[in-house]
Amino acid sequence: MQLRVHYLPQSVAAEELERGTAVVIDVLRATTTIVYALGAGARAVIPCLTIEDALAAAGSLPANGVVLGGERGGRPIEGFDLGNSPAEYEHSIVAGKTIVLTTTNGTKALLQCAGAEQIVIGSFVNLSALCSVLAGRQNVDLVCAGTDGQITREDVLLAGAIVDRLTAEQSSAGPHWELNGEAWAARDAWLAVVAGATDRELTARLIEAMRASRGGENLVALGMSGDIELAARIDRFTIVPRFDPASGRIEADLAAGHMA
Asked: Max CA-CA distance within the chain?
């Protein structure tokens, strides 16, 4: 059982993903926003690499059934319906709609994992549901999107939280995960943040750590620090979005719902 972490999408070869499950991670903010959108009742999310691709995809769908969302450099794209803030994807706006989404880092990472046997979306807001889906898988690759081609701490921390959960819950009598060096380091980084924390302290520590990360600093500079708090709401949702490259759609793999 292989459990590997890749700090950037370009650090994993396509053939490494072919026989396993890839978890795409872009905590601030694409994968978090995808979970929020589907949790709010969106029918599906279509990830696109470029603005032109997104416009074309949206144009091929009924106008009253599509929402065009995304960002470049953290800012909403001119002419789009929504940006990339989880707060924007409310039930009243997205329920029953298909979201066409293009972002600077997250959708690019997602499309780079298209050769995996299965592709799921990871965030802190669906951490427990995600780990339940991953438990018992033979090969899991946690692929961090990074920020502008650079490693970013919030993605590494989520990867470490997933590694910690999966290794802690494995049976002593059963097969054990074989970790790569990045997985061990990500787990250590996560444990350094959460050591001795109560649930309330954990959220505060996570927010603090993300504010100081590359992605968090960008959001603070843009006046969007509220998105960091939304991204830190561990287990708010019980859905695990799955990307099907054949259809180009991301849909909720489990019954939609959220925890109070």
From this structure: 56
